[in-house]
Design a protein that fits this description.
alpha+beta, Nucleotidyltransferase, domain 5, 2 domains, six-stranded mixed beta sheet, 16 helices
Length: 504
């Protein structure tokens, strides 16, 4: 009988279930989208019950596609959109409110109040994160303050908080009082509520945000046997792996050692650098848990988020109508030999890492009468690579962990012109894997390790397969000259947005 490892990949727009064989190849996959709910400007919500229904649907469909059942599953892992926040009744399983999604900005005034005179970094030394509407903690506070009776019910232990991994684990293990209420160290590290050194909830953070400890899940490692599924077509299968999506991609790229890094190119980009057992401190990047296996030592990472990479290509397509499809940008960019001196800083709503400038706005600089559509397209692609270089420079300065190669995934990693330019501007090889679904693969790897489906990290490295490698071709002098131009262009984007008028 064939044996597999399954992975639930619960993302911002859809949920997938994938089956992997012992050679880490995809056997079957199914995907279903869920609704994006936007009740007001800046508010983004999901229906948690809809997400659970989609999860059950994709599990059944993928197993049917593979002609498999739960008895053939050696383990199941979960990976999820991070920071998205849900509170539900422990007995009935009824959410008290829709999921507040990670992009949601309703907690901005609350964050300002929490920062007070000590500023947004008042918790950073312990939790690795600045106070921000991005993370889960303020979202929980908002729910306790705005849902009638929620705070009293939370203090009495009637309610449960979790990110989407916790919700799915609770549902998979039967719901109700006997269900598992847990999260893993990677998701917990994105709440602003966990001490990165002790890997336990940080009492001063809970006190600051007014969050009762009784509301919180147990924090577990990323790779251990948590229990068995009791519901869905997975009933009886071991549940053994949980990681937040970006950490799962790092794990799926087998970046297990200090100095190894991955970059995921999507709408924006997320770069994670493994800093080993010692966490690095940076005021410009986020400190986070990379992973922890069982009772072993935690591994840490520095994370740099870039707001706009693939979204810039979409903008060229939808707003400027320069291309009819995203794939055409590479052809257009190849119509010219270089960028013609044009640089495009896509600060459409500010800059994320490493600048963190909310007052920045997009600029195209270096235009002459010689410039054409091809130069702008090329500058748009190059912007993704230059922004990645900035994050890597900051990570190296903070962690002193020189990069040997950069492993890449996500939609834009299919753009070979970009990948070559990325290698050129960082001066190390860029490597794309054969299995592009690295997030689901990482969850599968974590679960399979916990149950002995794969023996150790050495075996996982052997199962990971390289599809393509790009070597740097640009001379160091040219690289630094063009990087100086990029940095000068970035400064031109600063200070364009005026402070918002207070809203009463």
């Amino acid at each position: 009988m064939a044996r597999y490892v399954g992975a639930i990949d619960q993302g911002t727009t859809s949920t997938r279930f994938m089956l992997f064989d012992s050679d880490a190849r995809i056997v079957a996959a199914e995907q279903r989208e869920h609704a994006q709910i936007t009740p007001r400007a800046g508010w983004v919500e999901h229906d948690a019950q809809e997400i659970w229904r989609r999860t059950t649907e994709v599990i059944e469909a993928a197993l049917a596609r593979a002609g498999a059942d739960a008895a053939q599953l050696h383990a199941v892992g979960i990976t999820n959109q991070r920071e998205s926040t849900l509170v539900w009744d422990r007995e009935s399983g009824e959410p008290i409110h829709n999921v507040i999604v990670w992009q949601d900005t309703r907690t901005t005034p609350l964050v300002d109040a929490l920062a007070g005179e000590q500023g947004v970094d008042r918790l950073r030394e312990r939790v690795g994160l600045p106070l921000s509407s991005y993370f889960s903690g303020p979202k929980v506070t908002w729910l306790l303050e705005h849902v009638a009776g929620a705070r009293k019910r939370a203090e009495s232990g009637e309610l449960a908080f979790g990110t989407l991994d916790s919700w799915l684990m609770w549902q998979l293990t039967g719901g109700g009082a006997d269900a598992l209420h847990m999260t893993d160290v990677t998701n917990a590290s994105r709440t602003m509520l966990m001490d990165l050194d002790t890997l336990d909830w940080h009492e001063p953070s809970l006190e600051l945000m007014g969050i009762p400890r009784a509301l919180l899940p147990q924090i577990r490692s990323c790779s251990e046997l948590y229990g068995e599924a009791r519901t869905t077509a997975l009933a009886g299968a071991p549940l053994a792996g949980v990681l937040g999506d970006q950490q799962a991609a790092l794990f799926g790229q087998t970046c297990f050692a200090r100095g190894e890094a991955k970059n995921t190119y999507g709408t924006g980009s997320f770069l994670l650098l493994n800093t080993g057992e010692q966490r690095a401190h940076s005021q410009r990047l986020l400190s986070t848990v990379a992973f922890r296996r069982g009772a072993g030592a935690a591994r840490y990472a520095l994370e740099g988020s870039i707001a706009v990479t693939g979204a810039l290509v979409q903008w060229l397509r939808d707003q400027l109508r320069m291309i009819d499809s995203a794939a055409e940008v590479e052809t257009l960019a190849r119509s010219v030999e270089d960028n013609g001196g044009v640089y495009f800083v896509p600060a459409f709503s500010g800059l994320f890492a490493p600048h963190w400038r909310e007052d920045a706005r997009g600029v195209i600089v270096g235009l002459t009468a010689f410039a054409n559509r091809g130069h702008i397209a090329r500058a748009a692609l190059e912007a993704a690579a230059w922004q990645t270089r900035e994050v890597l420079d900051e990570a190296d300065a903070a962690a002193d962990a020189p990069l040997r190669e950069l492993r890449v995934d996500g939609g834009m990693s299919a753009n070979e012109l970009l990948m070559q330019f990325q290698a050129d501007v960082i001066g190390v090889p860029v490597v794309r894997p054969e299995v592009s679904e690295t997030t689901a693969l990482g969850a599968a790897f974590a679960a399979g390790l916990a149950t002995g489906f794969w023996a150790d990290e050495h075996e996982l490295r052997a199962r990971w397969r390289e599809q393509r490698r790009w070597l740097p071709q640009m001379a160091a002098e040219q690289r630094e000259r063009e990087y100086a131009c990029w940095r000068k262009a970035v400064t031109r984007s600063f200070g364009w947005a005026e402070p918002a008028e207070p809203q009463h």
